[in-house]
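Fold this sequence, please.
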Amino acid sequence: MQWYPGHMKAARKEIVKAISSNDVVLEVLDARMPLASSNPTLADICRGKPCLKLLCKTDLADPQVTSAWRRHLESGPDAPKVLELALLKPNTGETRTRVLEACRALAPRRDTRAKPVRGLVVGIPNVGKSTLINVLMERKVTRASDQPGVTTVTQLVTLREGVALTDNPGVLWPRIDEPSLMRLAVGGAIPESELDYEVAGAFFVELLLARYPAAAAARYGIDAAATSPSALLEHIGRRHGLGPGGRIDLQKAGNVLIHEFRSGKLGRISLEVPETAASDSTP
């Protein structure tokens, strides 16, 4: 599941060239996995620039865990500003106001008509960058999709208030540790064609039963306390049809489970907690 296509290498080079001419970095993170969705190579490139971390997809994440992540990310003397964002229509006006105010506060010397604030929007694939740009522009100016790799070229947009934003393709890093790679796969940052749904499903079902047993019980009608991860995956497989020879299709079961998570049918679930930053020994 290692995926690092050519356009990502090109995008990384463009970000390196653009960083000096921008005032603020807007790093878009997945609220369900803020650590896994934070690209360490982008952190190195953007070091020293005022940074605004935007937790998107909060409508799908565990709200208590998201608040804990915000507090964690904002801790420390040089901590960035962090905003929790819901990019759904009822909240778009508030989202727009909060992001613009934060950008201006981070670059007060540029907040004039002659010198508008310039922001560099970065993040991993399918994290919500294009949706955010469309919300800030108040119209569709870039294609947004629930599949990674849709944005493949850099785009400059200027908001009516004068703030200029550069939207970049989603960028991963060449070597990703296994726990982070599994979270990225489950969360939707890896293309469907690269996924082994049986492996990804096994990872997620263990997390689901360990942290959200009530959600598993409500969705699949099982006794979560008495059900093992492998038994739940097989249960899902039987519910959605057996494969050739009457065997349980674990690829299909994993596919169903992961897409129900991504769509919110399992409820608001986070893939990692702040303690993950200190230890990745557990899911």
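Residues 6-167 form a domain with the Rossmann fold fold (CATH 3.40.50.300). The mean pLDDT is 86.
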